[in-house]
Automatic annotation (TrEMBL):
<keyword id="KW-0805">Transcription regulation</keyword>
<keyword id="KW-0804">Transcription</keyword>
<protein>
    <submittedName>
        <fullName>GntR family transcriptional regulator</fullName>
    </submittedName>
</protein>
<dbReference type="InterPro" id="IPR000524">
    <property type="entry name" value="Tscrpt_reg_HTH_GntR"/>
</dbReference>
<feature type="domain" description="HTH gntR-type">
    <location>
        <begin position="8"/>
        <end position="75"/>
    </location>
</feature>
<dbReference type="InterPro" id="IPR011711">
    <property type="entry name" value="GntR_C"/>
</dbReference>
<dbReference type="GO" id="GO:0003677">
    <property type="term" value="F:DNA binding"/>
</dbReference>
<dbReference type="Pfam" id="PF07729">
    <property type="entry name" value="FCD"/>
</dbReference>
<dbReference type="Pfam" id="PF00392">
    <property type="entry name" value="GntR"/>
</dbReference>
<dbReference type="InterPro" id="IPR036390">
    <property type="entry name" value="WH_DNA-bd_sf"/>
</dbReference>
<dbReference type="InterPro" id="IPR008920">
    <property type="entry name" value="TF_FadR/GntR_C"/>
</dbReference>
<dbReference type="InterPro" id="IPR036388">
    <property type="entry name" value="WH-like_DNA-bd_sf"/>
</dbReference>
<keyword id="KW-0238">DNA-binding</keyword>
<dbReference type="GO" id="GO:0003700">
    <property type="term" value="F:DNA-binding transcription factor activity"/>
</dbReference>
Length: 214
């Protein structure tokens, strides 16, 4: 029988916990994910662990290995360059549409993510700041009012959240998001595009990553 609506299944709980641990850096790239050990740690049978690992493989966060284990994905410089290219193509359109089409409710959601990021960055809470920074980008996608963009964002969400979490200068990123928020709120599409290009370029330089650096 299917789980009651609103009740999280064991598989979903394992997916959520492992995903958060990977994105927050608690499970390092290359670390082993062994079904038996995870089942014991999480207090579940091996079946939901096995299903959760399949989901995380599909999301691009885990690399499968033979039999009953996997590893946390080690993103190469080439992988990251691919993500950055796709991000650049999608986000320019997304942010411009959000600036032109946003509603009051969408702007309120964006402001809530920004405020949480700003407070966490000031407090040095890296995990919360990075999560809120990713929430900011997802809120912009929702504001764009384009269902295909929403579908693409869902497909890429875990990998993009990983990419967006690869920064140390929490307050700088929050400041760039604040400038983007202000321009979106004014419906200033040209300024949004210019600020976004600077935002993506500064992030690329901070990571020091590009093609040919594997």
């Amino acid at each position: 029988m299917a789980a009651e609506q609103g009740v999280e299944s064991e598989t979903d709980r394992v997916v959520r916990q492992l995903r958060d641990e990977i994105l927050d850096g608690a499970r390092a790239p290359g670390s082993k994910l062994v079904e038996r050990d995870l089942a014991a740690d999480l207090g579940v049978s091996r079946v939901p662990v096995r299903d959760a690992l399949k989901t995380l493989v599909a999301e691009g966060l885990v690399t499968p290995r033979p039999r009953t284990w996997a590893v946390v994905r080690e993103f190469t410089a080439s992988d990251i360059a691919d993500l950055q290219e796709v991000r650049a193509a999608l986000e320019v359109l997304t942010f411009k549409l959000a600036a032109a089409r946003h509603s009051r409710a969408g702007l309120d959601r964006l402001r809530a993510a920004l405020d949480e990021e700003t407070s966490a960055a000031a407090a040095g809470d890296a995990v919360t700041a990075r999560r809120a920074a990713a929430d900011f980008h997802e809120a912009v996608t929702a504001m764009a009012g384009n269902e295909l963009l929403n579908e693409l964002e869902l497909t890429l969400r875990s990998r993009m959240r990983w990419l967006l979490g690869q920064h140390e200068d929490l307050e700088r990123v929050a400041g760039e998001h604040r400038a983007l928020y202000d321009a979106i709120a004014r419906r200033d599409v040209d300024t949004v595009e210019a600020l976004l290009m600077e935002h993506m370029e500064s992030g690329r330089h901070l990571r020091g990553l590009g093609r040919g650096e594997d």
